[in-house]
Amino acid sequence: VQLQAFGGGLVQPGGSLRLSCYGSGIVFEDYTIGWFRQAPGKEREAIACIGSREDNICYTEAAKGRFAISRDNAKDTVSLQMNSLRPEDTAVYYCGARGIHSSGYDYWGQGTLVTVSS
Predict the structure, then answer these.
(1) Interval 76-102: pLDDT, tens
(2) How far apart are CA 116 and CA 118, in angstroms?
(3) Going edge to edge, which strands form the sheet with 67-72?
(4) Is pLDDT of 14 > 80?
């Protein structure tokens, strides 16, 4: 099982980035996919999640109004469109996969670094 998070990079404040999470080795469409981030010196925090059939979409306050999560099960991919980025969005972003009967996330990607700076 492998989750690959990619799409991070350096962006100026106010800019946009699109992150993607690709899953292999699992029946991707059976999993809820969540995006998380961890800034230096801080704990990992949840950002957004999306249910297996694009139902049950959730956003935390950090993401509401600026980020949008979507999925394409045919491509085993979940995307996170991030707009109006701020310096405080700088972090390593991770995706995780949670099975139907799981209480927590079963699998994690390796993380992709997003740096928001002028």
Answers:
(1) 999 999 999 999 999 999 999 999 888
(2) 7
(3) 2-6, 17-24, 77-82, 67-72
(4) yes
Q: Are 49 and 56 in contact (CB under 8 A)?
A: yes
User: Would you list the DSSP string of 16-74?
Assistant: -EEEEEEEESS-GGGSEEEEEEE-TTS--EEEEEE-TTS-S-EE-TTTTTTEEEEEEGG
- The answer to whether 109 and 94 have CB atoms below 8 angstroms apart is yes
Which residues lie closer than 8 Å to 74 by C-beta, 6 or more apart?
none
Q: Which residues contact 90 (CB under 8 A, 6 or more apart)?
A: 39, 114, 115, 116, 117
- Rounded distance, CA 115 to CA 118, Å? 10
26-47 pLDDT, tens per residue?
A: 889 999 999 999 999 999 999 9
CB-based burial of residue 80 (10 Å sphere; 0-12 exposed, 13-18 middle, 19+ buried)? buried
* pLDDT at residue 55 tops 80: no
Residue 104 DSSP class: S
Average pLDDT, integer, range 65-70: 96
DSSP class of residue 108? Answer: E
